[in-house]
């Protein structure tokens, strides 16, 4: 496995070393992975994109092969937003087309809200924008009105919270990381997709579980301002997996309704890790979207 990382370059950011790859030429496209993952999740995208663009992929802070998160430490999302901004500066890649999966998509969205001038476009793959509807964990005082105004979303949040998030948190708290990963994996991928993970892909989840554990046990979800999102005039591609939980579909739909320049595509056969499950169709969608942005000048 270490051979997988041997060719990666290193970027030093105020004492933090991030492994990254920089391939191709042209307008920069930066790939930002989610939790239980690292730079390896983009192995199907870099070869497809790099003949057309300069493609930068990196392992976020605490993801393999970078220094791990200390046991019991928190993992606030703000440091990842700052890391991404500094990476863009240090690699002379701003403004860039930013592509983020899951937690990485939330990082991209938050950077867009804070510093929109850094983005040419953004592609968000099932970002967990739960704070558009409720705090995390949800409060009953928020869910009751939501059950009346938007029962489909409220029920999806309740099902995912009670059936996935709560038991995952309990398993992590009692030190049963393996069970926590099993519950979470089945919850976001579906039992068949989780059971079908290769040994290498499961190892990637296991290697990077500490950040997911910190997110489950800490207070790491940021607030989101719907009105600010409505003002984001950034071309946006939203991607979701047809086999993902209903909650993820609802979150993408809600985000698509807010963003003024968004298009949403649901890719058949894909679970939450869309870039791996439907890599050919995702690559085609992404290349088409990025090419259209280039045509806009």
UniProtKB/TrEMBL annotation:
<dbReference type="InterPro" id="IPR000073">
    <property type="entry name" value="AB_hydrolase_1"/>
</dbReference>
<feature type="domain" description="AB hydrolase-1">
    <location>
        <begin position="28"/>
        <end position="277"/>
    </location>
</feature>
<dbReference type="InterPro" id="IPR029058">
    <property type="entry name" value="AB_hydrolase_fold"/>
</dbReference>
<protein>
    <submittedName>
        <fullName>Alpha/beta fold hydrolase</fullName>
    </submittedName>
</protein>
<dbReference type="GO" id="GO:0016787">
    <property type="term" value="F:hydrolase activity"/>
</dbReference>
<dbReference type="InterPro" id="IPR050266">
    <property type="entry name" value="AB_hydrolase_sf"/>
</dbReference>
<dbReference type="InterPro" id="IPR000639">
    <property type="entry name" value="Epox_hydrolase-like"/>
</dbReference>
<dbReference type="Pfam" id="PF00561">
    <property type="entry name" value="Abhydrolase_1"/>
</dbReference>
<keyword id="KW-0378">Hydrolase</keyword>
<dbReference type="GO" id="GO:0016020">
    <property type="term" value="C:membrane"/>
</dbReference>
């Amino acid at each position: 496995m270490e051979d997988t990382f041997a060719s990666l370059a290193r970027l030093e950011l105020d004492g933090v070393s991030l492994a990254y790859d920089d391939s191709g030429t042209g307008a920069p496209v930066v790939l930002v992975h989610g939790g239980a993952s690292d730079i390896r999740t983009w192995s199907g995208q870099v070869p497809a994109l790099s003949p057309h663009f300069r493609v930068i992929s990196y392992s976020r802070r605490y993801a393999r092969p970078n220094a791990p998160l200390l046991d019991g430490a928190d993992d606030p999302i703000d440091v990842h937003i700052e890391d991404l901004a500094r990476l863009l500066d240090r690699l002379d890649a701003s403004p860039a087309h930013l592509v983020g999966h899951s937690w990485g998509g939330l990082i991209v969205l938050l950077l867009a809200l804070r510093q929109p001038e850094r983005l040419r476009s953004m592609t968000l793959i099932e970002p967990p924008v739960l704070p558009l509807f409720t705090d995390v964990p949800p409060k009953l005082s928020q869910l009751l009105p939501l059950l009346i105004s938007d029962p489909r979303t409220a029920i999806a949040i309740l099902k995912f919270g009670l059936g996935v998030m709560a038991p995952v948190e309990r398993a992590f708290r009692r030190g049963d990381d393996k069970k926590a990963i099993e519950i979470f994996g089945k919850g976001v991928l579906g039992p068949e997709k989780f059971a079908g993970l290769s040994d290498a892909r499961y190892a990637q989840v296991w290697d990077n579980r500490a950040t997911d554990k910190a997110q489950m046990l800490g207070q790491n979800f940021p607030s989101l301002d719907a009105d600010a999102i409505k003002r984001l005039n950034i071309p946006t591609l939203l991607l979701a997996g047809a086999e993902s939980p209903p909650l993820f579909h609802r979150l993408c739909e809600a985000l698509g309704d807010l963003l003024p320049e968004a298009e949403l595509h649901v890719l058949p056969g894909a679970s939450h890790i869309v870039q791996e499950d439907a890599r050919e169709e995702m690559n085609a969608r992404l290349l088409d979207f990025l090419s259209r942005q280039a045509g806009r000048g």
